[in-house]
């Protein structure tokens, strides 16, 4: 009986590890996938227009509690530090949200950084299959230099250090 329980636990753990590894399509060292943010009004922001910049791509959903914590920290710490740096671009992308969804959400939260829609998961799907919040830091050369999923204060501090290093 004990062997059966142990075997079942190992099987579940193995599946969880495999699911985690399959969740991420883009890893550190990979090139940033090409994508275009398309707003409800048809305005387009192609990733190719960001060449040579340090880019933080953050995926979130309005219903996700860890995302709320991370976005609050972006508002408090990250955005004030980098919003005026023309070598840095922040793309906070609402997975499965429209501009209208994000505008309503932002009125409630009061963020002063831009939120971008990904209503059909087209952008998110180029980076990963699941798990939010999720962030990718892209260096000036277009390669991923740091990637996270979930939110912890320690990881966020490390992200801030990586941005500082990349901007030097």
Would you kindly provide a written description of the structure presented here, covering whatever features stand out?
The structure is a single chain. The chain is α/β, with parallel strands linked by helices. It has one domain: Glutaredoxin, CATH 3.40.30.10. It is built from 5 helices and 7 strands, in the order H-E-E-E-H-E-H-E-H-E-E-H. The protein has helices spanning 2-23, 65-82, 99-109, 122-127, 153-167; strands spanning 36-38, 44-46, 54-60, 88-95, 115-118, 134-138, 144-149. The strands form 2 sheets. Strands 5-4-3-6-7 form a 5-stranded mixed β-sheet. The protein has a two-stranded antiparallel sheet with strand order 1-2. Residues 26-168 form the Thioredoxin domain. This is Peroxiredoxin. GO terms for molecular function: oxidoreductase activity. Keywords: Cytochrome c-type biogenesis, Redox-active center, Signal.
Secondary structure elements and pairings:
Blueprint: H1 2-23, E1 36-38, E2 44-46, E3 54-60, H2 65-82, E4 88-95, H3 99-109, E5 115-118, H4 122-127, E6 134-138, E7 144-149, H5 153-167
Parallel strand pairs: 3-4, 4-5
Antiparallel strand pairs: 1-2, 3-6, 6-7
Key phrases:
Glutaredoxin, 5-stranded mixed β-sheet, 168 residues, alpha/beta, 5 helices, two-stranded antiparallel ribbon, globular, single chain
- The count of domains is 1
Q: Based on Cα principal axes, name the global outline.
A: globular
The radius of gyration over CA amounts to: 17 Å
CATH topology: Glutaredoxin
Main location: other
Keywords: Cytochrome c-type biogenesis, Redox-active center, Signal
Signal peptide: 1-19
Domain Thioredoxin: 26-168
């Amino acid at each position: 009986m004990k062997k059966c329980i142990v075997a079942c636990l190992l099987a579940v753990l193995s599946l969880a590890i495999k699911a985690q590894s399959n969740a991420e399509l883009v890893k550190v060292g990979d090139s940033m996938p090409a994508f275009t943010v398309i707003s409800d009004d048809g305005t387009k922001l192609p990733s190719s227009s960001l060449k040579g910049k340090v880019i933080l791509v953050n995926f979130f959903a309005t219903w996700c509690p860890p995302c709320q914590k991370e976005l609050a920290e972006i508002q408090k710490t990250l955005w004030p530090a980098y919003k005026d740096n023309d070598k840095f671009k922040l793309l906070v992308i609402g997975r499965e949200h429209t501009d209208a969804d994000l505008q309503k959400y932002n009125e409630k939260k009061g963020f002063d950084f831009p939120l971008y829609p990904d209503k059909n998961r087209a952008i998110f799907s180029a980076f990963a299959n699941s798990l939010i919040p999720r962030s990718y830091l892209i260096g000036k050369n277009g390669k991923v230099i740091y990637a996270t999923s979930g939110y912890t204060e320690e990881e966020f501090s490390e992200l801030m250090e990586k941005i500082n290093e990349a901007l030097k």
